[in-house]
Amino acid sequence: MGCAEDEPAVRRWRGVEKGEGPRSWLSARSTKLLAPDWAVACHRSTGPGRGTMRQRSLVANDPTSGDAADRRDRPPKSVPPLAEAVKALPHRPVYRMHRYFARRPYSVFAELVRHYSRPGDLILDPFCGGGVTLVEGVLQGRRVAGFDLNPIAVNVTRMELGDVDLAGLARAHAAVMKRFWARQRRLFSTTCRGCHDQADVLWFEVSSLAPCSACGKAFHVSAAGKAGVGAWYCPGCKTRVRFSPQHDTASEVMSVLYRCGRCGERLDEASAEDRALAVTLAAVLADAERQGLWIPDAAIPDCNMQRESALFSKGIVQFRQLFTPRLLLALAELKAAIVETPEVHRPWLLFAFSATLRYANRMVTRNPGWRGNRPLEWAKPGFWLPPVFLETNVAEEFDRRFKALLRGKRDYLANLPGAPPAECAEPGALLKSDAPAYHVARSSSTKLPLRPHCVDVIITDPPYGSNVHYADLSNFWAVWLPELGMGRVIDDREEAVIARKRFPGAKSAQDYQVLLERCFGECSRVLKPGGFMVMTFNNREPRAWGSLLVAAAKAGFDLPPGGVVFQSGIETYRHTAQSRRNGSVIGDFILSFKADGTRLQKARRDSALTTEEVTRAITKVLRREGRPLSPNELLQRLYVDLQPRMMERARGAIARGDRAINELIESLDDIRLLDSHRRQLLEKHFNYRDGNWALRDEHAPD
Question: How much is the pLDDT for 546?
Fold first, then answer.
């Protein structure tokens, strides 16, 4: 039984390639992840006009499995907390279809699903974000429910989980490209310097003009030597000039990468015609808008990302200012072509369009020493405008993102253990389903639309305090998508974040804690007795840890013995902007909470965690390891040791009241020893040699 009466029990797997023959349902990875939960029997059936149908018969080895009602009423899987870390693997194709911030390693969540649940169990992710929990859940035959305040997160997750006729979608994409290519070619063409034929431009490189107060002349930043962060040497007078682009900064096309049918790919200096065209595009854009071309005019809100990027002080007040007139024209015309497509394909093409925005904006640049001529897409968690940037060919980027969508859906569909899961419009239908299914909704998890004690396990990746401001960043996409129920700035009033900057409505650590308390309270309500609430978490700021642990303890959760495991991050992603932040631990901590309301009565009465106590804990870590440790290694081990103690203090503070809770959070925030970049503070107690921390003589073992 699926989520709707008209839902077929088994739906056809759809491929793009005509006449594609049978192939294995499972990769080696999938087979490993499913064993030993399922005994898998595969068979194939075909029918006239239906192509190849793949169907999987799934038999639960679990002795507690029975009919659907039995599975729904059975207690959650009884297991100890996960004891060992899992090798973090790079994102699979399904997660590369569309960018989402702070998406965690799929291999880790696949193991959490396997360890803490059984086939047919209901898994909840109250902060579904980039959809990893839900995707890995259905890939192992679970029912999954996900909620998020962020409409971009909800749309990304639905696209990852959804079934689609890939052949029909490919035809719709081809029709859009045919209509759009002719429209955009006037924006991305040049004359080949070799044969003088018209050639398609892959990107134009644009340089800001920086004014030099010493000589009174402006210079192209692309032609100037670097003089430190945000500074260049004036080529004329050699004066050091600090510069940051403003909304009205003059710029000029400097070079062009193009593809000629005769001469191949060439990188040349921009021609006079290239530069002349660029000057006219603002007027062309204005005229197109008067004739009805839609471009978002949403204002950038005063928010953390605005403050950190100093957008208002630069005169950047609308999201459209993060794009050039050329890019706005091309993107708006592409979107207009997509809107003309049949409704069945439109959401998928808009999804590819949304993914394209990351690759076609004013924040795209290049690094020839790293990627050669390949553009560097917007990747930083902020809105930084580089003084030298690329205007990329929108048709080319959209085509690449569509191919990424096809790869992602093929990967997902090929690794499913059976027919694609049904989407349940209402959570009640999901609860009644006896087959893998999903429900994803835009909703605050402070009030979950689920009945009590219906969830077998909660597996999630909650907001990381101040690390990522999801709504601020996702507005970049959302304002372009009114057809998907967006088109405006995201309502973030219940987003659990800690603002790093001060602005009206900025949330504090206490606000973050209160929102998490409400969410975790709902998690406790819907979780079956004895079930786990498992999450990955990391933050270099002790106050965020304190807020999280207090919120979990207030909701009746505790960390059982062995409930904390450090999980290394993906090796190839270790040099991201977030990972390079001072004091960052590269990886996550897996926290396996379990409901235990009795522990509050047994809590110790003292709550503050002192600097002396942390110093003793560091000493214990260094003694136990018997060798010097890098800052990253030290913090990993220290947090694993401290979290149960911090949880105990949180329970003690809760027993004493709100004042004690505030004192605990403040005491954690004051322990600056935990910020490894403040080396001089740790050096009062320990030696720092060759990039490692070691015991001083007075801390040496007796």
Answer: 86
Q: State how far the Cα of 4 lies from the Cα of 281, in Å rounded to an integer.
A: 51
CA–CA separation, 135 vs 159, rounded Å?
A: 10
Q: Where are the beta strands (DSSP E) in 321-410?
A: 388-392
Cis peptide before 36 (omega within 30 of 0): yes
**Residues 117 and 77 sit within 8 Å (Cβ to Cβ):** yes
> In the chain, helix, strand, coil percent, each to 5?
40, 20, 45
Instruction: Count CA atoms within 13 Å of residue 608 on its CB side.
Output: 11
| pLDDT (tens digit per residue) in 451-486 | 999 999 999 999 887 878 999 999 999 999 999 999
* DSSP conformational letter for 550: H
For range 260-264, the mean pLDDT: 96
pTM: 0.86
Q: Which residues pair with 689 in a beta bridge?
A: 692
Q: Provide the CB-side half-sphere exposure for 62 (13 A, CA).
A: 23
Q: What is the pLDDT of residue 492?
A: 94
Q: Cα angle vertex 235, ends 229, 240, to 5°?
A: 40
Cβ-Cβ contacts under 8 Å for 658 (sequence gap 6 or more): none
Could you give the domains of the chain? 1-160+421-595 (3.40.50.150), 168-407 (no CATH), 600-702 (no CATH)
% of the chain surpassing 90 pLDDT: 66
Q: 621 and 637 in contact (C-beta within 8 Å)?
A: yes
- Cα 73 to Cα 65: distance, rounded to the nearest angstrom: 10
Mean pLDDT of the chain: 85
- φ, ψ of residue 200 in degrees (nearest 5): -85, 130
Q: Contact 123/137 with Cβ under 8 angstroms?
A: yes
Residue 494 is predicted with a pLDDT of: 93
Q: What angle do CA 219, 221, 227 make, to 5 degrees?
A: 105
Identity of the amino acid at 301:
P
For residues 62 and 119, is the Cβ–Cβ distance under 8 A?
yes
How far CA 558 is from CA of 344, 407, 598, 654, in Å, comes to 46, 41, 10, 13
Q: What is the DSSP letter of 75?
A: P
DSSP H or E run through 515: helix 509-526
Structure tokens at 117: 């649940």
Measure CA 305 to chain center.
16
pLDDT, tens digit (0-9, with 9 covering 90-100), for 358-368: 999 999 999 99
519 CA to centre of own chain:
20
Strand pairing partners for 250? none
